[in-house]
Design brief:
The complex is a heterotetramer of chains A (299), B (325), C (520) and D (331). In chain B, 74% of the residues lie in helices and 2% in strands. Chain B has 325 residues and is mostly helical. Chain B has a single domain, classed as ABC transporter involved in vitamin B12 uptake, BtuC. The two termini of chain B are 17 Å apart. Classes of the chains: A alpha/beta (299), B mainly alpha (325), C alpha/beta (520), D mainly alpha (331). Bound molecules: adenosine-5'-triphosphate (ATP) (2 copies), beta-D-ribopyranose and magnesium ion (MG) (2 copies). Chain B: It is found in: Cell membrane.
Chain lengths: 299, 325, 520, 331
C-alpha cells in the first residue's frame, strides 16, 4: 500500500513541477503556492525545466529533505516511475497531478495515492466530436501539435485523430508541431495555410498555438471563425474571450488550478479516507453557446 | 612553494576549492545535505553529465566542440531501451553503439569533410534527435524490467551507485589516456597548434577522429544510464546537456581554444554545477526563494559568473599550468 | 631518357627530386624544380624570398601534394602524403616558421611522436632526461617541464632543432634555422651539423646568411622563381656568384661592407627624442637605460635573452615597467597600451611575425594599412584610393613579391611577409621606429634594400631603435650601440668605438659600470 | 604598368571550387527555390514571399550582430535571452506597468528605446566580461544565456503580457510602401552592417581582431573597445528582434521569446560562409544563409515532412551548404 500520511496541523510538502515555460504551467504553480500559503504549509518547490530526468533528481532531493508528501506533475509516463518508487521506499506518499504515469508500472493506492487531473486523450476526442457535429462543411483540417514527444501532444493527437479517422468526410491535410508556443504556432500556421489554401479548420493542442494561428489566419487575409474554424484546448481567459469574439470556435478546458483539490486530497488521505484511484477534473467545454456567460469563471 | 606557483596551482584547482566551499555551505546550512541518500542520488544522477563532460573535455582539448552530446544521449537511451529485452549487456552495447555511430559521423564530418566542429555537431544534434524521435515514435520507450537492464542505472555496488562507478572508471581511464599515452598528449598538441602538430608528423586527423568517436561513445553510455536509471528511452531528453558539459569543462580550467585541459578538474566542474542544482532545491525547502522559480536561473547564472571570473583572475596571474610528472 | 637519369641519381644520392611542379590557385610556386642531396652531405638551398625553397621542402615532406614530378629517396620512389609518413621514412624537418605547440612543455615538444614508454604508458622521467640531454648538445639549459611559450624565440628554435635531431633520420631539413639565433648559438648548431654529417646523416640547410654556408655546407643549390637554377660545390662558387645566380643578373657590389648601411651623415642627427632611465620589469629587464636621437639609428646588441625585445615592449606600452622613467619628445612618457605609443609617433616591428605581426587571412593591403588606417579615413570611412596608392608604392619600394595588394598575406613567403610588416610601420611615417630583427629571413637583395631604406628614413629625421642579432648589422648600421646583458644595459659605444671585439666582449662579460657607481 | 598590376591581369583559370565557395549559399538557395517551384503547392505567390520574409526577419537581425561577434573570433549565446528581456520590458513600459505614461506615442517610443537600450547594456556586459577578464566568449555569454531569461521571467513574474497597441505593433505588423516594416528594418540593418564591415575602419578592425588579436593590438587597435562595441551591437540587434517578435504576436512571453535563437543565428552565419573561427565575415552571406535555413523550414513544413524526419533533413542541408562553402577554401 501507499505510505500513510500522519495527521498533523501543518505539513512540509513538495511540489515537483515539470516546466515553467507556458502560462498553463504558471497558473498551476501559482495555484499550488497560493494554497500552501493559505493553509500555512511549507512548500518545497522544484522546476524540472522540461527534463524528466531532472524531475526524478528533484523528487530525490525532496526525499532527502524529508518532506511529508510529494505532489508530482510527472513530465512523462515512464521515466518518473523510479521517483515514485523511491518516495514509496522512503515512506513518503505521492499524489500525481495533471499527467499520469504508466499504469502497468505503478499502481494507484499502492505506489502512489492517486492521480488528479484531466484526460488528454479525452480532450482531443471532445474537440473532434464537436467538430464532427458542427463542421458545417468545414472538413479540411490543419493540426498544430504540441511539443514533439510530450504526452499531452501525443494524447491530444491520438484522441482527435482517432475520431476523425472514423469520419471519412474529414481530412487532416497537415499536422506539424508548434511546440505549444504562440510564435512557433503562428509561423507554422502561416506556412501550412499557404501550402494548403483549402484548409478551413485549425486544431491546436493548446491556447497559445491557437492564438498564434489566429494571427496567421488574419495575416493571410482570412477571417478566423468564418473562413476557418479554430479549435483549441486549455480554455484560458484569453482563449475564452476569443470564443466570445468568434475567433475561436470551441475550446476544451484543461484547468490548471489544482491547488485546492490537491491539498484537500492530502488532508483526506491523512484522515484515512478512501481515495479513488483517479480524480478527473470536470473540465468545461466552451463554444459560442456558453462562452459569454462562463467567461468570468475561466482561469 | 613560490607565490606564482601557488597561484597557478589555485588557477587549475580553483574549481576544486569552489566545490569544497559549496559543499561546506550546503553542509552547514541544510539538514540531511550530506546524508547518504542525498549523496548517492546526486552522484547517480550526475554520472550521466560526468560522462558527457568527459567526452566534451577531450573534444575541447583538441580545440573542437561537440554540441550533439545531448541528443546523442537521448538517441542512445532509445536504442538501449529498444534493445534491452535482449539482455542487459546487449542494451548497453546497443546504446553505446548508437553513440559511437553519431560520433563516427561527427568525426567524418570534421576530419574528412573539414566542416567546422561547431556546425558539424550542431547538425548532428538535430539529426540524432530526429532519429531518436523516429525510432521511438515520438514517445518514451519502456525498457525491459526483466532482463536486468535497469540494474545498470538503479542498483548499487559496494553501497555505491553503479552509474557513479562507471563514471569514475571512465575518468580514471581518461586521466591515464591524457597523461600517460601518446594519443592523449597528441590530443593536447592538436589543440595547441594543429598545423604544427601535423608538421611534427603526428596523426592530427586520427587524433581528432578518435576524440569525436569517444565523445559519441560516452554520450551513448550516458544514454544507457539514462534509459536504465529512469526505466525508459527518452527521445526528448538531453536538451541543454551540451551547454552543461561545456560549462563544466571550462569551469574546470580547460581552454576552449584547446591545448590545455584537465580531466580531473572537469569532474570537479561537473560536481560543482550539479551540486548547485541540488543546493537550489534544498534552498527552496527553506522557503526563501521558492516564491519565484525564476530566481533559480538568475542565481545559477550569477554563480557561474562568479566562478568564471574567479577562474579568470587566478589563471591570468599564474601562467598556464602544465603538469610535470 | 628520364628514367635513366633518375636511375643514375639513385645510385649516388640519398634524395633526388625532378620536375617538381606546385601551383597555388593556378599560380606556380614551383615549376620543374629539381633537387638532389647526397649521402652524408650538407647541402645548402638558397634563393630570394618567394623563390620556392619552403614550398619545395613542404612538397618533399608531403605537407603539400605536388602537381607533377618525381621523388626518389634512399633508392626508392618516394610517395608520402603527410609529414608523418615522411618522418617515418627518415626525413626530419625543421620548418621555417617555428612549428611547435606553445602550451606544451619543452619535453613534449621534443618527444611528441616518439615518446618513451614503460608498461605501455608514457615514461615521463625518461622523456625529461632525454629532452634535457638533447638540449645540452646545444648548450641550452632550461626547465624542460615548463610550457614552451615561456621561452624566447631562440630557445624555441633550439627546441625545434633538438626535436628534429632527436629522430634518428637519414635526412634532416632545416629551413632557416639560424634566423633567430645569435652567433654563439649558430656556432653550436654548426657543431651539431658536423656531428650529424659524421654519423652519415644528410642535411639540407636553408639560409639567407650566405657567409654561414661556407662554414658547413658541401654543396649549394640555388632557386629562382620556382626553378633550380644552379647546383655547385660550395668551394667552387663565391658569394658574388651565389648572389648573381639568385637574382638572375650579374651584380657588382661594394666590397668591405657586409650591409648596405654605407657611411652615415652624422650631422643630420638631432636632439634626443626618447630617453629611458633604469627601466625594470622582472628578471628579463632589470636595469636598462638608453636614449635615441632624431635622425639616429640606435642599436641594441646582446645575447639571446639579454632583454632587448622585452625592453622594446616596455617602450611600446605592451608591458608596463615596474620601475624606471621614459621621456619622449621632451615629455614624460608612460604608455599603457600600444596605441598610446603609436599616438605619440612610434612604430614597432616585432620579431615574431607569425603570432604578433601578420593577420594571415587579410590581404597584403589590409595588413599594411592596419596601423595607418584610422589616419587615412574620413569620419571612420576608409579612403580606399589613398590606401591603394600607398600600398602600391610600398610594394614597389620594398620589392614585395605578391600577385597584388589583394593577395592574402598568408600566401606570401616568409621574407615577403616580413616586408609587408615593415611597410605597415614605414607607412605610418613615425618619429621613432623600433625594429626587432628587421631583416630576419630576408634575402640578401632585399636586405640591402631594407637597410638602405632604414638609412634614408633616418637621414630624413626618423629615430630608429634597431635590435639585431646580426652583429654586423648593428655595428655597421647603428650610430650608437647599446649592449644589454642579462637585463642590464652594460655598455654604450659610439659609431667609431663600436668594433666587433668591443661589442662582443661587452655582450659576453660586460658589467654595469654606471650602476656600480650609482649604487650606495 | 606596374609589376603587380600586370600580374593581376594574368587571369586565373576558372576554378569551380572557388566559384562554389563564392556563390555556394546562393546556389543552394536557388536550388531550393527551384525545388519548391516544382513540388510545393501554391509556392509562386506573393504571400509565400511575404510569409518567408517576415519569418526570417528576426533571425537575420540577430544574425547580423552574431556575424560581427563571430568575426572577432567570439560567439554570443545570450541573444535569445536578451530578446526575452527586451520583449519583457517594452510592454511593461508602454502598458504603463512601471510608470504610467499618458501619451501613447511617447510611451511606445520610451518602451522601444529603453528595451533595446537595456539589451544593448547587457551586450556591453558580455563584452566587458570578455575584454576585461578575458573570459572565453562562449562561457561569458553562457552566463546571460542562463540568467538573462531568468531576469526576463523575474521582471514579468513569468506571466504572459498581451496587448493591442497598434503604434507599437507597427514594427511587426505595419507596412511601408506595401512592404512589411520589419522587412524594411531588416534590409536597412543588413545594408548598414555590410557597409560598415567593408568600408569603415571599425569594420576592418573587427576582422583584424578575429584574424590575429595580438597583431591587432600591437597595431594600435583598441581591441577591448572594439569588442565592447561589437557585443553591444549584438545585444542591440537582439533587443530589436525581441520587439519585432512580440509585436507580431501581440503578446510577450518571457519564457519563450527568442528560445533557441542563438543556434538559428549561428547556423545562419555558418551557412552564409562566415568562418566561426573569426577573421572573416560576410553580412550578405549571413542574409542568404538565414534565408536558406528559412526556406528549408518552409519547404519541409509545406510538404508535410514529419517533424522528426525534418530534423534529419535540416541537418543534412546545413552540412551540405557548409561543405560546399568549404570546398573553395581547401583548394
Ligand atoms: N599557401 C600558399 N598559397 C598561395 N601561394 C603560396 C602559398 N605558399 C607559398 N606561396 C607562394 O609560393 C611562392 C614560394 O614561396 P616559398 O614560401 O616557397 O618561398 P621561399 O623561397 O621559402 O621564400 P622565403 O625565403 O621568403 O622563405 C611565393 O610566391 C609564395 O607567395
Ligand atoms: N620566463 C619567461 N616567461 C615568459 N616569457 C618569457 C620568459 N623569458 C623570456 N620570455 C620572452 O621571450 C622574449 C625574448 O626575451 P628577451 O627580451 O630577453 O630576448 P632578446 O634579448 O630580445 O633576445 P632574442 O630576441 O634574440 O631572443 C620576450 O618576448 C620575453 O617576453
Ligand atoms: O496545454 C498544456 C501544456 O501547455 C502544458 O505544457 O502541459 C499541460 C497542457 O495541458
Ligand atoms: Mg621560406
Ligand atoms: Mg628579441
Amino acid at each position: 500500500d501507499a505510505p500513510p500520511l500522519k495527521k498533523k496541523d501543518t505539513y512540509k510538502v513538495g511540489f515537483a513541477q515539470t516546466e515553467s515555460n507556458n502560462p498553463w504551467r504558471l497558473a498551476q504553480t501559482a495555484s499550488m503556492q497560493e494554497e500552501a500559503k493559505k493553509r500555512g504549509w511549507q512548500l518545497v518547490y522544484t522546476d524540472a525545466a522540461s527534463s524528466a530526468a531532472k524531475q526524478v533528481a528533484d523528487v530525490n532531493s525532496m526525499i532527502a529533505q524529508g518532506v511529508d508528501l510529494i505532489f508530482l506533475a510527472p513530465r512523462e509516463e515512464k521515466p518518473l516511475i523510479p521517483a515514485i518508487k523511491a518516495a514509496k521506499n522512503a515512506g513518503i506518499p505521492v499524489i500525481l497531478l495533471d499527467r499520469n504515469v504508466d499504469a502497468s508500472l505503478a499502481k494507484p493506492g499502492e505506489d502512489y495515492v492517486t492521480f488528479i487531473g484531466s484526460n488528454f486523450i479525452e480532450e482531443g476526442q471532445r474537440v473532434a466530436d464537436w467538430l464532427v457535429k458542427n463542421a458545417n462543411g468545414k472538413t479540411t483540417i490543419i493540426e498544430l501539435e504540441g511539443t514533439t514527444g510530450s504526452s499531452p501532444a501525443n494524447d491530444r493527437k491520438k484522441g482527435f485523430d482517432d475520431v476523425i479517422a472514423k469520419n471519412p468526410d474529414f481530412k487532416i491535410v497537415a499536422s506539424q508541431t508548434g511546440d505549444f508556443a504562440r510564435d512557433k504556432g503562428r509561423q507554422v500556421a502561416e506556412t501550412l495555410l499557404q501550402a494548403h489554401p483549402d484548409a478551413n479548420v485549425v486544431y491546436a493542442h493548446n491556447d497559445e498555438m491557437a492564438m498564434g494561428a489566429i494571427s496567421a489566419i488574419e495575416a493571410a487575409g482570412k477571417v478566423p471563425g468564418k473562413d476557418i474554424l479554430v479549435l483549441s484546448i486549455d480554455g484560458g481567459k484569453e482563449a475564452v474571450q476569443a470564443v466570445v469574439d468568434g475567433k475561436i470556435a470551441a475550446v476544451v478546458e484543461c484547468n490548471p488550478r489544482f491547488g485546492p483539490k490537491a491539498f484537500d486530497t492530502a488532508i483526506a488521505y491523512a484522515a484515512g479516507e478512501k481515495i479513488p484511484d483517479k480524480i478527473i477534473n470536470p473540465d468545461q467545454f466552451y463554444d459560442a453557446s456558453n462562452a459569454k456567460e462562463l467567461l468570468s469563471t475561466a482561469y | 612553494m613560490t607565490r606564482p606557483r601557488l597561484i597557478s596551482l589555485l588557477g587549475s584547482y580553483g574549481v576544486v576549492l569552489a566545490l569544497l566551499l559549496l559543499v561546506l555551505f550546503g553542509w552547514a546550512r541544510y539538514d540531511y545535505f550530506l546524508g547518504f541518500f542525498n549523496i548517492t542520488s546526486v552522484l547517480r544522477y550526475n554520472s550521466m553529465f560526468a560522462l558527457v563532460a568527459l567526452g566534451m573535455c577531450f573534444v575541447i582539448m583538441t580545440g573542437g566542440i561537440d554540441l550533439s552530446v545531448g541528443s546523442t544521449a537521448a538517441l542512445g537511451s532509445v536504442v538501449a531501451a529498444l534493445a534491452s529485452p535482449q539482455g542487459a549487456w546487449i542494451g548497453l552495447g546497443a546504446g553505446v553503439g548508437a553513440g559511437l555511430c553519431v560520433g563516427l559521423i561527427n568525426a567524418i564530418l570534421v576530419t574528412r569533410l573539414k566542416i567546422m566542429p561547431f556546425v558539424a555537431t550542431l547538425a548532428m544534434m538535430l539529426a540524432a534527435s530526429g532519429t531518436a524521435l523516429l525510432l521511438a515514435d515520438n514517445q518514451s520507450v519502456s525498457v525491459s524490467y526483466e532482463s536486468g537492464f535497469t540494474s545498470i542505472g538503479q542498483d548499487n555496488f559496494l553501497g555505491f551507485p553503479i552509474p557513479a562507478w562507471i563514471a569514475i572508471m571512465a575518468y580514471v581511464v581518461g586521466w591515464i589516456v591524457v597523461n600517460f599515452t601518446s594519443t592523449g598528449r597528441g590530443v593536447l598538441a592538436v589543440g595547441g597548434n594543429e598545423d604544427a602538430t601535423r608538421l611534427m608528423g603526428l596523426p592530427a586527423d586520427r587524433i581528432k577522429f578518435l576524440v569525436y568517436l569517444a565523445s559519441g561513445g560516452l554520450a551513448g553510455l550516458a544514454g544507457v544510464i539514462l534509459a536504465s536509471q529512469f526505466g525508459a528511452g527518452q527521445p526528448i531528453e538531453g536538451v541543454g546537456w551540451e551547454l552543461f558539459a561545456i560549462a563544466a569543462v571550462v569551469v574546470g580550467g580547460t581552454l576552449l581554444t584547446g591545448g590545455v585541459g584537465s580531466v580531473g578538474a572537469t569532474l570537479a566542474g561537473v560536481l560543482l554545477l550539479g551540486i548547485l542544482f541540488n543546493v537550489l532545491n534544498f534552498e527552496n525547502g527553506k522557503g526563501w526563494i521558492s516564491l519565484s522559480a525564476y530566481w533559480q536561473s538568475v542565481i545559477r547564472g550569477l554563480f557561474l559568473l562568479v566562478v568564471v571570473i574567479l577562474q579568470a583572475k587566478l589563471s591570468s596571474r599564474g601562467s598556464v599550468a602544465v603538469r610535470d610528472y | 631518357m628520364r628514367s635513366e637519369l633518375a636511375f643514375e641519381m639513385n645510385t649516388n644520392s640519398l634524395l633526388s627530386m625532378t620536375g617538381i611542379d606546385k601551383r597555388f590557385a593556378g599560380i606556380p610556386a614551383l615549376a620543374g624544380a629539381s633537387f638532389a642531396v647526397g649521402r652524408g652531405e650538407v647541402h645548402a638551398l638558397i634563393g630570394q624570398n618567394g623563390a620556392g625553397k619552403s614550398t619545395l621542402i613542404k612538397v618533399l615532406t608531403g605537407y603539400y601534394k605536388r602537381d607533377a614530378g618525381e621523388v626518389v629517396f634512399d633508392g626508392k620512389p618516394f610517395e608520402v602524403s603527410s609529414p608523418q609518413q615522411a618522418q617515418a621514412s627518415g626525413i626530419s624537418t625543421i620548418y621555417q616558421e617555428i612549428n611547435l605547440v606553445p602550451y606544451r612543455s619543452i619535453t613534449e615538444n621534443i618527444c611528441l611522436g616518439r615518446e618513451a614508454r614503460r608498461y605501455g604508458l608514457l615514461d615521463w622521467k625518461r622523456m625529461h632526461q632525454e629532452a634535457e640531454a638533447l638540449l645540452q648538445r646545444f648548450n641550452v639549459r632550461a626547465d624542460v617541464r615548463r610550457p614552451l611559450m615561456e621561452f624566447n624565440t631562440a630557445t624555441q628554435q633550439m627546441v625545434a632543432i633538438a626535436r628534429a635531431i632527436g629522430f634518428s633520420a637519414k635526412l634532416v631539413i632545416m629551413d632557416e634555422p639560424t634566423s633567430s639565433l645569435d652567433e654563439r648559438e649558430v656556432a653550436v648548431l654548426f657543431n651539431v651539423i658536423r656531428q650529424l654529417k659524421q654519423e652519415g646523416v644528410s642535411v639540407v640547410f636553408v639560409s639567407h646568411k650566405l657567409d654561414e654556408l661556407y662554414e658547413v655546407c658541401d654543396r649549394v643549390t640555388i632557386m629562382r622563381d620556382g626553378r633550380t637554377v644552379k647546383t655547385a660545390a660550395m668551394n667552387e662558387i663565391d658569394k658574388i656568384g651565389l648572389v648573381s645566380a639568385m637574382l638572375g643578373r650579374a651584380i657588382e657590389r661594394a666590397e668591405g661592407h657586409a650591409t648596405a648601411f654605407s657611411d652615415r651623415d652624422e650631422k643630420k642627427i638631432g636632439k634626443v627624442l626618447l630617453s629611458a632611465e633604469n627601466l625594470a620589469i622582472n628578471q628579463i629587464v632589470q636595469d636598462v637605460s638608453f636614449n635615441v636621437r632624431s635622425g639616429e639609428i640606435a642599436g641594441f646588441a646582446g645575447l639571446l635573452g639579454a632583454g632587448r625585445t622585452e625592453t622594446a615592449r616596455l617602450v611600446f606600452g605592451i608591458d608596463r615597467p615596474r620601475a624606471g622613467t621614459m621621456i619622449f619628445n621632451g615629455q614624460t612618457f608612460d604608455p599603457h597600451k600600444p596605441s598610446d605609443a603609436i599616438a605619440a609617433g612610434m612604430g614597432f616591428c616585432t620579431e615574431d611575425r607569425k603570432s604578433e605581426g601578420i593577420v594571415p587571412d587579410m590581404s597584403v593591403a589590409e595588413n599594411m594599412m592596419l596601423a595607418l588606417m584610422p589616419k587615412l579615413s574620413k569620419s571612420g570611412v576608409i579612403d580606399d584610393k589613398a590606401q591603394r596608392d600607398i600600398v602600391e608604392r610600398f610594394i614597389r619600394q620594398l620589392g614585395i613579391k605578391c600577385s597584388g595588394p589583394d593577395q592574402k598575406v598568408r600566401e606570401l613567403s616568409g621574407g615577403n611577409q616580413q616586408k609587408v610588416l615593415l611597410g605597415r610601420w614605414l607607412a605610418m611615417n613615425p618619429r621613432l621606429l623600433i625594429l626587432d630583427e628587421p631583416t630576419r629571413g630576408i634575402d640578401v637583395g632585399a636586405k640591402g634594400e631594407i637597410q638602405a631604406l632604414i638609412k634614408t628614413l633616418a637621414d630624413q629625421g626618423l629615430a630608429v631603435l634597431m635590435i639585431s642579432s646580426e652583429l654586423e648589422e648593428v655595428i655597421e648600421g647603428a650610430d650608437r650601440v647599446f649592449v644589454l646583458r642579462e637585463g642590464i644595459s652594460v655598455a654604450e659605444f659610439d659609431r667609431d668605438e663600436a668594433t666587433e671585439d668591443a661589442v662582443m666582449s661587452a655582450m659576453a662579460h660586460g658589467s654595469a659600470p654606471t650602476i656600480a657607481e650609482a649604487a650606495p | 604598368m606596374t609589376d603587380t598590376a600586370r600580374q593581376q591581369l594574368i587571369s586565373r583559370p576558372f576554378d569551380p571550387f572557388d566559384f562554389m565557395a563564392r556563390y555556394g549559399t546562393l546556389i543552394a538557395l536557388a536550388l531550393l527555390i527551384l525545388f519548391n517551384f516544382a513540388f510545393t503547392r501554391n509556392f509562386a505567390t506573393m504571400q509565400t514571399l511575404n510569409v518567408n520574409l517576415t519569418q526570417v526577419c528576426t533571425i537575420v537581425i540577430v544574425a547580423i550582430g552574431m556575424t560581427l561577434v563571430i568575426a572577432t573570433g567570439g560567439i554570443d549565446l545570450s541573444v535569445g535571452s536578451l530578446m526575452a528581456i527586451s520583449g519583457a520590458l517594452a510592454p511593461m513600459i508602454f502598458l504603463g506597468k512601471i510608470v504610467p505614461i499618458d501619451n501613447v506615442a511617447l510611451a511606445v517610443a520610451a518602451a522601444m528605446i529603453i528595451a533595446v537600450g537595456v539589451a544593448g547594456l547587457f551586450g556591453l556586459f558580455n563584452g566587458w566580461l570578455i575584454a576585461r577578464f578575458r573570459i572565453q566568449p562562449i562561457v561569458a555569454t553562457l552566463v546571460l544565456f542562463i540568467a538573462g531569461r531568468g531576469i526576463a521571467q523575474v521582471l514579468t513574474n513569468g506571466n504572459l503580457q498581451t496587448f493591442r497597441v497598434p503604434q507599437f505593433q507597427w514594427i511587426g505588423l505595419g507596412r511601408l510602401f506595401g512592404i512589411p516594416v520589419q522587412v524594411v528594418l531588416m534590409v536597412l540593418l543588413v545594408i548598414a552592417a555590410a557597409w560598415m564591415l567593408k568600408r569603415t575602419v571599425f569594420g576592418r578592425q573587427i576582422i583584424a581582431i578575429g584574424g590575429n588579436e595580438r597583431a591587432a593590438e600591437l597595431s594600435g587597435i583598441a581591441v577591448s573597445r572594439v569588442k565592447l562595441v561589437v557585443y553591444t551591437i549584438s545585444g542591440l540587434c537582439a533587443g530589436i528582434a525581441g520587439l519585432v517578435v512580440i509585436a507580431i504576436n501581440s503578446s510577450s512571453d518571457a519564457n519563450l521569446v527568442g528560445m533557441g535563437m542563438e543556434l538559428d543565428a549561428i547556423a545562419a552565419v555558418a551557412v552564409g560562409g562566415t568562418l566561426l573561427s573569426g577573421g572573416k565575415a560576410t553580412i550578405i552571406g549571413t542574409l542568404l544563409g538565414a534565408m536558406t535555413i528559412q526556406l528549408v523550414r518552409y519547404t519541409l513544413l509545406a510538404n508535410g515532412v514529419p517533424d522528426a524526419a525534418a530534423l534529419v533533413v535540416k541537418a543534412g542541408i546545413i552540412v551540405l551548404a557548409v561543405w560546399i562553402q568549404q570546398q573553395g577554401r581547401r583548394a
